[in-house]
Automatic annotation (TrEMBL):
Active site: residue positions: 54 (proton donor)
Protein name stated in the entry: Putative oxidoreductase YtbE
Family to which this protein belongs: Belongs to the aldo/keto reductase family.
Annotated site residues (Lowers pKa of active site Tyr) in this chain: 83
PROSITE patterns recorded: ALDOKETO_REDUCTASE_1 (PS00798), ALDOKETO_REDUCTASE_2 (PS00062), ALDOKETO_REDUCTASE_3 (PS00063)
Top-rank EC class of the record's enzyme: oxidoreductase
Organism whose genome encodes this protein: Bacillus safensis
Lineage, broadest ranks: Bacteria, Bacillati, Bacillota, Bacilli, Bacillales
Gene that this sequence comes from: ytbE
């Protein structure tokens, strides 16, 4: 069980990954982003998640440099994730995309590199490139994002290395039970993007009721549910008070009954694209 903001999960290759971090999806490159990343590091966050398609790797890199300078931490104290975009899926093109991301982030290596979406007929070649990067020591762990069990089955037919992570949309309205069970049984760590359903869940009657019961905010209730489910979680925020609030979830425990009530909110409802039906 995670006990504090720097608690880690052990991935299937032995690498320790913080169980809670900062996501920067839809945060424009610029001063606000740089400041958010720097502030998160100052507040104790040790994991930052970005992607090539977000167009903000440069700002994330600057924020990391400033955060390290102001806290006296070293590069290896921070866990940095990025993702290869669909247009770059392919062996050589993925290797090139990786170098491009490193350059923008001003880093020598990434801690985790993911295939962003399971584009039919393309993700296997991209995976071969990720395996090469891993073998060459350029990345500490490799994984996927938005993969369903059948995508993983297909990938594993030819893969030499099993993905360490599958980062997917996951929240009480989309609990992905089949995938959750599959990942647990295959030793692949689940990671949640959009854990707060982009704010849509914050006014749900059950969640506000539990917030009152536990003396917490609705966001804290949902994020606590995530980590008690054993799912790595990366909520997005740019405001210091919200970054602090999101991380203040280690001083209470949801009862088994309340965990179940939250899981029972599932409606298989997505706010993001369906991994079995997307066209980008």
């Amino acid at each position: 069980m995670m006990e504090h903001l720097q608690s880690t999960k052990t991935l299937n290759n032995g690498v320790l990954m913080p169980g809670f971090g900062l996501g920067v999806f839809k945060v424009e490159d610029g001063a606000e982003l740089v400041d958010a990343v720097k502030t998160a590091i100052q507040l104790g966050y040790r994991s930052i998640d970005t992607a090539a398609i977000y167009g903000n790797e440069e700002g994330v890199g600057r924020g990391i440099q400033l955060g390290l300078a102001e806290t006296g931490l070293r590069r290896e104290d921070i866990f940095v994730t990025s993702k290869v975009w669909n247009a770059d899926l392919g062996y050589e093109s993925t290797l090139n995309a990786y170098e491009e991301s490193l350059k923008k982030l001003q880093l020598d290596y990434l801690d985790l590199y993911l295939i962003h979406w399971p584009v039919e007929g393309k993700y296997k070649e991209a995976w071969r490139a990720l395996e090469t990067l891993y073998r060459e020591g350029k990345v500490r762990a490799i994984g996927v994002s938005n993969f369903q069990p059948h995508h993983l089955d297909e990938l594993l037919k030819d893969a030499d290395i099993k993905p360490a992570i599958n980062q997917v949309e996951f929240h009480p309205k989309l609990t992905q039970e089949t995938l959750y069970t599959y990942l647990n049984s295959h030793g692949i760590q689940m990671e949640a993007w959009s854990p707060l359903m982009q704010g849509e869940l914050l006014h749900h009657p059950l969640i506000t009721e539990l917030a009152d019961t536990y003396g917490k905010t609705p966001a804290q209730i949902i994020l606590r549910w995530d980590i008690q489910k054993g799912v790595i979680t990366i909520p997005k925020s740019t405001k210091a008070h919200r970054l602090k609030e999101n991380a203040d979830i280690f001083d209470f425990v949801l009862s088994d009954e309340d965990m179940k009530r939250l899981s029972d909110l599932n409606e298989n409802k997505r706010i993001g694209p369906d991994p079995d039906n997307f066209d980008f």
